[in-house]
Structures are given as C-alpha cells and as structure tokens.
Design goal:
Two copies of one chain form a homodimer. With 228 residues, the first copy, chain A, is α+β, with helices and mostly antiparallel strands. Chain A has eight helices and eight strands; from the N terminus they run H-H-H-E-E-H-H-H-E-E-H-E-E-E-H-E. The interface between A and B is medium-sized, with 19 and 19 residues. The structure holds a DNA duplex (30 and 30 nucleotides).
Amino acid sequence: MSAAAASESLTRSVEDYLKAIYQLSPEGRAASTSEIAHLLALSPPSVTGMVKRLSEHGLLEHIPYRGVQLTQEGRRAALRMVRRHRLIEAYLVEFLGYSWDTVHEEAERLEHAVSDTLVERMASALGNPVVDPHGDPIPAADGSIQELSCTPLSDIAVGETVEVHRVHASEPERLRYIASLGLVPGARVTVVDRQPFDDLVTIEVAGQQHVIGRELGHVLQCAKTADV
Amino acid sequence: MSAAAASESLTRSVEDYLKAIYQLSPEGRAASTSEIAHLLALSPPSVTGMVKRLSEHGLLEHIPYRGVQLTQEGRRAALRMVRRHRLIEAYLVEFLGYSWDTVHEEAERLEHAVSDTLVERMASALGNPVVDPHGDPIPAADGSIQELSCTPLSDIAVGETVEVHRVHASEPERLRYIASLGLVPGARVTVVDRQPFDDLVTIEVAGQQHVIGRELGHVLQCAKTADV
DNA sequence: ACACAGTATTAGGCTGTCCTAAATTGGAGC
DNA sequence: GCTCCAATTTAGGACAGCCTAATACTGTGT
C-alpha cells in the first residue's frame, strides 16, 4: 500500500506538515502532536486529523498517543521543501536585495509555488551553494544532506575562540538583533566569561563585548575555526 | 457594504477568477459565466457559485443570466495580478534562462505567491519594463495601464510592412512555432499576399515567406514600424 | 405569440482543512 | 496498584471550492 502513493502533487498544507515534522525529528526521533501544532500554529485536533491522512498516504507513521515519524517517502518530500526554502532564501539575498531577517517569510510562500526547474536554475545562478544565508545546509537535489556538527555558543568553554556557523532563527527581530551584534555566519567569537546560572555567557566579537542569554546561546551554532 | 471588503488577502482561486474576468472584458464589457468557466477550465455552476461570493465581497457585479463586470476594487485586484504575472515572466526570461514558451506556466503559479516587495524588486532589477516578453503591456504599480493600439496581422493590407508588437498566446507549442518563424516582438513583417477565404495571408519575415492562418493571424498583433 | 435551443442557476454532494468541546489514554507520583 | 493531569484523540461542525443532475430563464425564429 505504502508504495502506491507516490508522485501525486502535495498540497501546501501537506508540504508544511512534512517540513515541520522533519524539523522536529532530528535523528529520526518521533515528533509529538502538540509540537507540530505549536510549530504550525494549528490546534492539536487538526494535527491528529492530518497526521491520520498522511499516514494513510504512506508519508509518515503514526503510533497513536506516541507521535509520528516520517517514512522514507515523507522524508524525501520534506527534504525537497527544505532545499527549496534554503535555495530561495539564498537567491533572494544574493540577487534581490533581501536581508536575512526578511527573507524567511517570502521563501515560506515561494517554496510551494516554484517548479523543480526554477529551483535548479536558482541553484545554478548561485553556483550551487551548500549553505543558506543563515548557515543552514542545503540538501542536495538527490535528497542527501550533510549536517555539519556544531556546538551551541552556550556550550563553548571560557577562553575558546570559535566561528559562528549557523544562526537558527527565523524571526526578523531576533535576526536583526543578532546581526547588529555582528554574529553572522563566519564571525569569530571568543567566550570571555560565563555566569554560573541561566547560561549567560560573555563574548567578544569584533572587539566588542556582549552578554548572551540562554536562548541566543542555543540559536548560535558554532565550531572551531577552520573546521569544515 | 461594498467598501467594507478591502484588504483581506484573496485566495488563489479568487485571484484567478478576477484575472480571467478582467481578460474577458475589454472596455468593461460583461463576461459570461460560460466564458469564465471555459477559460478557467471549471464547470459553469462552479463559476456561478464563486461569482455570487465575489459579488457579495464587492469585487464584481453580477446580473443573473446577464454576466459579470468587475467593480473598481475588483479591477484593481485583477490588474495587480496582471502586473505580477508579466513582471515575473520578464524576470524569468531575463535572469533565469526561461524562454517565452515555458515562462507562462511558472508565472501562473508564482503570481499568487510573491509579495509586493518582491514584485517591485524584480521590476527594479529589470529597469521597470513596460512590456513583457510577449509584448503585452505591464500595468503600473498604481494600476494604470496603457493599451497600445495594435492591428491583428490578418487585418494588415497586402504590401504593407509592419512590426510585431504583441504575441497573444500562452501555449508552449504555439509559441515555439511562432518563434521558429521569427515572429517575435520587434520582428518586421511584410504581407505579400492574401487568400480570399479563411483569412490566409502570406508574409515575408527575415527574407522567408510563410502562410499564416486565421488563428495565428489574430494572435500576432502588429503596428506600423516606429509606431509606439 | 410561442416553442425550443442554449445558457445560467439551483439543488445536493464531496473533499480538504480547519475549529471547539467532549471523551480517552498514558504515565508520574503516591 | 491507583488516581489524576496533561496530552491526545474522537465527535461534530464550518467553510471554500469543486462537481453532476435537474430546473429555470432568454432570446431567436417562425
């Protein structure tokens, strides 16, 4: 049964669900109904209903009261959306004057409307980039993705100097604040102090010191310089 | 009542209806249910139903059994879609390697997904063009549009030389054929002969003679050279 | 003046996606 | 092992859009 479902085009809603579930299940962990509902700003019953339909179509597996996991096919569809989204973001920033804080919303709509042809043309125009403007890796057209291993800034030891690789946020205000501190992908950051509570770290970037709280500390994914 | 409806965003379907009705009513003539149904590939009852909803929202006026006409507001929304569509086509041809026969379908989907911001950025990148790749005029952002007066090729007198201004087709096969004859906007065409029946005209373009039938004769909109 | 052909509308249904309110279930803590 | 809370699912409903079949209208031709 599960094999028969391929190739009919998915609705916008379905694409959003698959992308959300993919994002909620690193390492193939199961995503819960309420997590999905929260991420998509829907009610939990709506999610239960859709999840049931998607599992009938072979895109995911649902163990009632336990959560959902994408099937191979669902994962493929989700990665396709992630590729689209990130390439569109990269294209808009590179060629149409978007800044990284405004690009997410536009890409969120376009990712459902572009053809595969257009996506690949944008990729070519960009020189087939491997990361988007936030440093997130762009899945290849064949669905492979290599997650680069990063450490949240909040886990970096005092005295270490690292490079910001990914900035895991989509809200414009947050991104603008982060950019105003100079914490864009590629920036070099030194952790100069750490508070014993609340994961507060003091960092130095571009000669300036700032204190970073728990949330931003997790949003900023870093790695040793010259690491991949 | 009619004024209260503004600014809620329109659905894809609604946008398609408005654009179709706009295209079917040159000079504010009324469009019939069956014309709309045919253009959108829907059943007439579906059109009646939607038309009813749209007239409740103040986007058009419906006189039962007589046809529909856009209101000011509906016309504005339709022109917005036409602008989007034509600018997207121009952008894709100019920057992403699309040819005029493949670009329509892509634009048809994108026009519903782009933001006003993106449309205006594409317009700037293009240098604010006034016509799209098919020679169709692009409405201004304020909704004004100047229709250039053209004559169908089938109405040009024998012996006259004219310039192709607009090519009013969207089907890829037809457009490819037209392009293969060199009949792109800007091409100079001389009518060398005309059959007494079926509107067949013999033309010369780029030193080659071709016979053009009734349909293509209407698709090819021409004007005297150096006419605007 | 009237019948009829063709067009348009009404009636009744289906699907996809969402919602709120009311059960149900699983696991934490006693 | 039982109780209870929070998470989840079921029940029941709304709305946008679409369809087919049945009915109503309009204008044409005689």
